[in-house]
């Protein structure tokens, strides 16, 4: 038993070493990745369930690393967050996204919203609010066209600067969206505490609504709560037509997912959008 234990131990450390080396390489490559232009923002459209028209898009970051290949945000965002690099990278995403919104609106002659993800570390940046304001002014975009998506992780810290920042953003007129709703412990209490405009139901619930009565009931209840509180609801991760049918029945406002489109580079999106004006 003893030697087996030791083997298990050395196996574990080997795995850990590989993970640590990978992490180190990513961190090393991330410095300078902006300058090398390795980041690219993709956009995934969101649609109005009632009118079938596109109403906006979510900005999703991609990293094409020359040294390491494509790295998913699930892998690099936590590292960017840890090192603090997310602050400058996040600023790049905001600039690109507002620029994209301008192009999209000009090419279609319509008004859309653009949703950008913000992670906890970005709220510690004293410059966050002035940066958002200046970026909106520069791009000549109304604050109401920008939606900031935040998860429970942001609110969980309980720090007063978070509440202050959220309030300041709201005063600016920016929309606040609660991302991944239902996956955390206290999503409900945060809904009461903060004034969100949009609730995004997590993909894991949408995934189950066709087979699973519990998931369907939870989605139904979430939509009812959101509507009672005056929030709009986005269902994320819609992949099949049956899910859309149920979401329509449940009075969901907006949908987003592979069923309609995967996230796309800006140029593809603008190209494509002339075809899918309606779904
Ligand atoms: P998220 O904000 O929950 O974004 C939704 C994720 O679901 C995206 O993954 C999107 O590509 C994926 N998705 C959309 N529709 C479907 C579908 O129908 N089926 C499936 N299976 N997946 C779908 P992605 O782009 O890999 O991003 C992962 C996470 O990384 C995001 O989750 C977000 O937390 C983070 N992230 C991405 N871009 C940024 C960014 O610019 N800033 C920050 N702070 N975080 C970001
Ligand atoms: Ca999101
Ligand atoms: Ca989400
Ligand atoms: Ca509100």
TrEMBL record:
Q: What is this protein called?
A: EAL domain-containing protein
Residue intervals of the EAL domain? 23-277
